[in-house]
Design brief:
This protein is an all-alpha fold and about 100 residues long. The protein has a domain of about 40 residues. It contains two helices and no strands. Helix 1 packs antiparallel against helix 2. It is elongated, with a radius of gyration of 24 Å.
Length: about 100
C-alpha cells in the first residue's frame, strides 16, 4: 500500500479505476440540461409573442419592454441554433473518424 495515496499499486491496473462511476447519471444530466435550455428558449419566445400581442391590442404601452423581450427571444434562439450546429458538426466529425 502506498502511504501517500492510500491505494495499492494494483489499483491503477484495474480497468474500472479510470471509468467514472456515475457515467449514466452524467448523460442524463446533459439531457436534462438540454431539455431545460430548450424550454427556456421556448418560454422566451412565448413571452415575446404575448408582449407583442399585448402591444398590438393596446394592453402593453411600453414599446421598449416589448423590443427587449423580442431581442432576448431572438438571441436565445440564435444561440440555440449555433449550439445545435456545433453538435451536428461534432457528430459528423466523429462519424468520419476511421477506426
Amino acid at each position: 500500500m502506498n502511504p501517500l495515496t492510500g491505494t495499492t499499486e494494483t489499483t491503477f491496473l484495474n480497468p474500472t479505476f479510470f471509468k467514472p462511476a456515475e457515467a449514466k447519471i452524467a448523460g442524463a444530466g446533459f439531457q436534462a440540461f438540454l431539455q431545460q435550455s430548450i424550454q427556456q428558449v421556448d418560454q422566451a419566445q412565448k413571452v415575446s409573442d404575448q408582449m407583442t400581442a399585448g402591444l398590438i391590442s393596446g394592453r402593453v404601452e411600453n414599446v421598449h419592454e416589448v423590443m427587449i423581450a423580442a431581442q432576448k427571444a431572438s438571441l436565445s434562439l440564435d444561440l440555440t441554433m449555433q449550439v445545435r450546429n456545433k453538435m451536428v458538426e461534432a457528430y459528423q466529425e466523429v462519424m468520419r473518424m476511421q477506426v
